[in-house]
Design goal:
Helix content is 77%, strand content 1%. The protein has 15 helices and 2 strands. The protein has helices spanning 2-23, 27-52, 60-78, 82-104, 110-129, 131-134, 157-179, 182-192, 194-199, 204-230, 240-253, 259-274, 282-296, 300-322, 326-334, and strands at residues 140-141, 232-233. The longest helix is centred in the middle third of the chain and has 27 residues, at 204-230.
Length: 335
């Protein structure tokens, strides 16, 4: 029954996403939803390394910028077709993530987070100062939209919306397969205790590095989609503010859950758009709302709901076990 309910819930979410453009009032709302999907893909990657493996990576937004700039540089400066540049973005972020992971994952806890924050700032400086490669503060303009595939064309906001939605669904499916596999259980074992994971025969460095690489590949592909959707890149994409936004999405939705990063991204994006009329003062309202969510829902919206559901199930089971003759009655019913 839980399996069926889960499938029904995901189907309803997919249906809502499919029909959303029919109710959107203009292309601006469709473009905002498209960017929310892109950020959700990146948040899924951050949730893998942080929520499932327990390593708080503060360079995640910078890897998203690496993927975006890979597409921008290849398509604008070297006239590489978009989809080849898109695949190259995943390769570049994976290779870079592998070597940075080998260095950073030797550290634990706050030391790892501080190291990755420094890495993020170094990557930001490289993008801003390496003008011959990244165009520096001017940024990269004129990035082409994703090229068509057969009869499918992606030059309009609506077509890009469905393209990014398809990648989000694919990313969710792959992530679900990862976290529910033996590999995903290894990630969670590392999150719970390094010593216990080693006692179970798990290679800590290899497991952490693999999780790190997989997570930044999600960020790289999200950045590649961002480049094709926005079609302009600036160094601010590599700033720590992007990473903090992604962290906020994961924390609000529920860290260590599949639905959490999506729900957090959509809720925070909706709040941000709703408070735009406040302009520079919207953070005065937005900040306390987020603080309240973190205080009263420390496990996030999805995490709190799952915990309470488990508590109710345990209470019902305990009540059933305490009822005289309940076990015998249950045995007769099963027979």
């Amino acid at each position: 029954m839980n399996w069926l309910q889960g499938k029904t819930g995901w189907a309803l979410l997919a249906a809502a996403a499919l029909v959303f453009p029919l109710f959107a009032q203009n292309n601006y709302l469709i473009s905002v939803a498209t960017q929310a999907f892109i950020m959700a893909i990146a948040a899924l990657g951050l949730n893998l390394i942080t929520g499932y493996t327990g390593q708080f990576n503060l360079a995640h937004g910078a890897f998203m910028a690496v993927g975006a700039y890979t597409v921008g540089i290849l398509t604008v400066d070297h006239q590489v077709p978009f989809w080849i540049a898109f695949l190259a973005a995943g390769v570049v972020t994976a290779v870079l993530g592998y070597f940075i992971g080998l260095l950073s994952l030797r550290l634990r806890g706050h030391y790892f987070s501080i190291f990755t924050l420094c890495v993020s700032y170094i990557m930001f400086l490289l993008i801003e100062k390496w003008e011959s490669l990244t165009h520096g503060p001017v940024g990269i303009m004129g990035i082409p939209a994703p090229t068509g595939i057969g009869p499918l064309q992606f030059g309009t906001p609506l077509s890009q919306y469905y393209l990014v939605l398809a990648f989000l669904v694919l990313g969710l499916w792959i992530m679900a397969r990862i976290v529910r596999s033996l590999l995903g259980r290894s990630f969670m074992a590392v999150r719970n205790s390094d010593d216990l994971a080693e006692a179970l025969g798990i290679d800590l460095m290899r497991t952490k590095t693999l999780s790190f690489v997989l997570s930044v590949v999600y960020a790289g592909f999200a950045g590649a989609l961002y480049a094709g959707q926005v079609r302009f890149l600036g160094p601010d994409l590599a700033s720590e503010a992007v990473t903090f936004d992604l962290v906020m999405f994961v924390l609000v939705g529920g860290i260590g859950t599949l639905l959490g990063p999506l729900l957090g991204t959509f809720i925070v994006t909706w709040l941000t758009q709703s408070l735009q009329f406040l302009q520079d003062y919207r953070m005065v309202v937005f900040g306390p709302v987020l603080i309240a969510l973190i205080i009263f829902l420390p496990d996030g919206i999805v995490g709190t709901w799952l915990k309470r559901r488990a508590q109710r199930a345990d209470a019902a089971q305990a009540e059933k076990a305490a009822t005289p003759g309940a076990a015998a009655q249950e045995a007769r019913n099963n027979a």
